[in-house]
Amino acid sequence: MALVLVSLAGLLALAVAIVFVLLRQGKAADHLNAVVRRQHTSRSLAHQLRQSSDDRTRMVRSYAATGDPRFEENFYTILRIRNGEAPRPKDDNHIFWDFQVAGGAAVRGADGEKTSLQALKKRAGLTKEELDILAEVQLRSDELVRMEETAINAVNGRFRDATGAFTAVREPDRELALQILFGEEYLRAKSAIMKPIKAFLVESENRTRRVVAEAQAEHRSLSRVLVSLFTGAVVILPLFGLACYRYHTASTDDLAGSEQRFRSLMEQSPLAIEILSPDGRISRVNPAWRRLWGLTEEGAAEVLREYNMLTDRQTQELGVARLVRRAFDGEAVVLPPIEYSGTQALEDVGLDALKARTPWIQCHLYPVRDAEGKVLFVVNTYLEITELKRAEQEAREQRDALARMERTSRMGQLTGSIAHEVNQPLTGILSNAQAGELLIETGNYDLAEMAEILREITSDAKRAGDVIRNLRDLYREQKGELEPLDVNAVVAEAAVLVNSELLKRNIELRRECAPSVPKVNGHRVQLEQVLVNLIMNGGQAMEDKPKDDRRLCIATACDADEVKVWIEDSGPGIDAAKLDEIFEPLATWKPGGTGMGLAISNAIITAHGGRMWAENRPEGGARVGFVIPVFKDDDA
Amino acid sequence: MSEATVCVVDDDPSARRGLIRLLRAAGLKTEAFDSATEFLASGKCGGPGCIVLDVRMPGMTGPELQEELAASEYAIPIVFLSGHGDVPTTAQAMKKGAVDFLTKPVDRDSLLDAVRTALARDAENRKRQEENRSIRELLSQLTPREHEVMTYVITGLLNKQIAGELDISEETVKIHRGRVMHKLGVESVAELVRLCEKAGVSPAETGNQ
User: Fold this and answer.
1) Do the interacting molecules here have an ipTM over 0.90?
2) Which of A308, A626, B112, B198 is the most buried if burial means most Cβ atoms within 10 Å?
3) Shortest CA distance from B105: residue in chain A
4) Average pLDDT per 10 consecutive residues for chain A, totaling 636 residues
5) Which residues lie below 8 Å from residue A3, measured CB to CB, with a gap of 6+?
């Protein structure tokens, strides 16, 4: 750009210079012309002077010789013309006068101008020297005219008197006239005219020559300057042209480049980009978009023809239609992760033959506005998170597997206890049944007692069934359903599971449950697992305490938002240094254990939307617990 | 003598009521306790009767109660009933004198046999105790010298030898011996020996031994 401006400036300067030079040249040429014209005029003037004189001489001599009155007439006409009293004929040369005499062509009136020689001289722009010379010529000419007049008048018989006027009348004296006209004096006078004229001409020519030489010199130098200027122009012009061209191509390059860059940006982006017009249709997509959906260019073209995001059914079903609407209204939005079926979308717009992928996507939509704020188009950038989701899924499965493993391991520990728990109601059942038999055998029965026996048997059987079912659930593969749970009930079930184990270890378990707790959304089996884990941990912590000092307390509490459950033991407490990482895997490893109990419990509670904590009680022992958010119906 | 009572000590309500009903159906007198401490506080520890005792209970466990009772003057026989029988517990309980160690759910015959055995033992114990008491009473009637003589008599020494041991006359020995036999109500040395055995009186240590 700078180059363009510089070369342009250079060109302009050159142009100005050239113009200037040309003007100078023009002026010089004009000057030269003027000079030449002047010279021409001078020569013409000089010539006219001489001619006029010669014409007169001829006329007067002819008159003197012939006495023909025509010659006299012409003489006076010439004289009158000389004096500017008559218009000068256009073809004013001696031939004319000959014609005049011969043919008698009248002197046209308005042929030329009524200019006296004086005026002509003036017009010729003569210098003072020239004018002086001409003045002298005039003088000499006047002398001649005097003699000629004398001669003519002599032929006419008129002669000067004392005043010089031709008043004396005498005999015409043609001889005298001829003498005068051919006499020494007359010839001298004629040559006397010629000399200044000649001098005048010479002077004029010299001057002209000088001027011409100067003019030529100047012309030459100006020409040289002109040439160099033109050379300069010739050099700069292509430079200018090049600069212009480069600039032009640069800016068209810029424009083309900008367009190209934009296209490259779209084409090479690894993210799928979709440009939508305000009516909801797709106007442009990039290769990454085609890859995302698994469409060919033709397929994509068909989609662009038919699909409309604002009326798409799947978008509504997935619950993101409102957010999409907001983007089109002018607000940048991020959609939550959704699993979108390309094939379904295609079917919904009648493109049954096409198939597309069903990725997990997270869309970022933002509107592009013009200066007035009107939405020109909406850009949708897709983040494909299928892999991420898959990884999440795997992680979840692994976590579940790990939890299962821990459960299994734990359940292995508790099997004896479970057996014990089941044996209790079984004992009741067996004893009751056999009591019934015995009563019948001995005949000591009554129906009321039998009924009671049967009721008790039924109740015990159910109890045994519950324990077994609980155990079965804990061993089961699936994680079970999410359901609203009463935490107190879960605590009670967990207590049953661990009851025997605690008895074995002489551990007293006290329950201090809040009278009523709001329901939480969770997996019963998993929460039981957590509780069992916490109880067993507490129990283990008190291993070294005397048998009558092993106290566990499990408590529940709640507020509007959360339900809190915690276990307190009367053990030595948790090593303060380990308190921070107690929920890390293997932080609490003991021989025979997995070391994963708390880590898994933490994972379970976190997956329930809650959190676990652990702290030491001021009165000694540890307190470990969790909070879970209350199940609020509008979460659904 | 009050009737022998079978005391069922078990914290689990299902097991407890079933057992009670069964024992009652068998014609036995029963009483139920839901903890060892309740049983101890009841004053039934001395019987007559026996205990059907659960092993795992909160607070005082079955074996603990067994120890507690063993430390007391007289403990009624125990039939252990466990929902979870492991060898060490069983062995320990039996070594400490339990009548039997049964597992839940318990079959009627097993239970009743064990209970009857326990009751029999209790009766046996009681009888022996009574015997011992009377013997002791009798023995208490002996003078120290008589007692001393007695201990020599049951070694089988002749009167003469006894006299030598005790550095008293044979006659004195004979007199003491006669009085002992009379007071104790035995007619032969053999009886005396048996009685002393029962009473736990040890024979004297003589130089011959």
Assistant:
1) no
2) A626
3) A427
4) 80 84 80 75 73 82 85 84 71 55 47 55 64 76 83 84 82 84 85 76 78 79 82 82 76 73 86 93 93 91 91 90 92 92 90 88 93 91 90 84 77 72 89 93 88 94 85 65 88 87 85 90 88 89 86 91 92 82 73 71 86 90 92 62
5) A239, A243, A246, A247
